[in-house]
């Protein structure tokens, strides 16, 4: 691996981070090719449709970045992506991540207001605050309890 490249693995996701200097992308592209070859050798398949490339470029005059090709397919270049639960933008600001978190919080609060307005028992409302992903279980159980 070239010193300007890093490979980050988490569960079944792999991320290649490459520093391109003096317009020389060869080390980065070679690293992606080595990863592709390693996957093929080890009977792993890369899903090129899910593979994305994000270019962070702070030069005053940006030049077009030619897209990567993996097994004859072009890798999509994106302006932002989700990485380990964090929204990353090509300008490396926190705006997109903050607005995503805010929107999610507002949706949760709206749902809590609806639960309160529907006069659901406090234990169900508390359970939603602590474990929002389990709400449907609580509602089904409560409806079953009321119905019997």
Task: Describe the sheet with the most strands.
Answer: 2 strands, antiparallel
Strand order of the largest sheet: 1-2
Q: Which residue ranges are poorly predicted, with pLDDT under 50 across at least 5 consecutive positions?
A: none
How far do the termini sit from each other?
Answer: 65 Å
List the helices and strands in order. EEHEEEEEEHHH
Q: Report the portion of residues in β strands.
A: 15-25%
Q: Give the rounded overall mean pLDDT.
A: 83
Number of helices: 4
Shape: elongated
Counted beta strands: 8
By helix and strand content, what is the structural category? alpha+beta
Helix content: 40-55%
Computed Rg: 23 Å
Describe this structure in words.
By secondary structure, the chain is α+β, with helices and mostly antiparallel strands. 41% of the residues lie in helices and 20% in strands. It has helices at 26-41, 95-117, 122-130, 135-147, and strands at 5-10, 13-18, 52-54, 69-70, 73-74, 76-78, 80-83, 86-89. A hairpin with a 2-residue loop joins β1 and β2 (13-18). It starts with a strand and ends with a helix. The mean pLDDT is 83.
Topology overview:
Layout: E1 5-10, E2 13-18, H1 26-41, E3 52-54, E4 69-70, E5 73-74, E6 76-78, E7 80-83, E8 86-89, H2 95-117, H3 122-130, H4 135-147
Parallel strand pairs: 3-6
Antiparallel strand pairs: 1-2, 4-5, 7-8
Short description:
With 148 residues, this protein is of the alpha+beta class. It contains four helices and eight strands, in the order E-E-H-E-E-E-E-E-E-H-H-H. Strands 1-2 form a two-stranded antiparallel ribbon.
């Amino acid at each position: 691996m070239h010193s300007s490249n890093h490979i980050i693995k988490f569960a079944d996701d792999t991320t290649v981070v490459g520093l391109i200097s003096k317009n020389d992308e060869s080390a980065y592209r070679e690293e992606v090719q080595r990863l592709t070859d390693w996957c093929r050798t080890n009977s792993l398949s890369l899903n090129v449709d899910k593979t994305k490339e994000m270019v962070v470029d702070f030069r005053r005059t940006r030049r077009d970045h030619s897209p990567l090709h993996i097994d004859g397919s072009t890798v999509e270049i994106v302006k932002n992506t989700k990485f380990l639960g964090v929204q990353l933008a090509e300008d490396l600001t926190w705006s997109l991540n903050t607005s995503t978190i805010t929107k999610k919080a507002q949706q949760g609060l709206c749902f809590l207001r609806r639960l309160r307005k529907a006069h659901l028992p406090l234990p169900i409302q508390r359970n939603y605050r602590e474990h929002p992903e389990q709400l449907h279980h609580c509602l089904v159980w409560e409806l079953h309890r009321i119905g019997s």
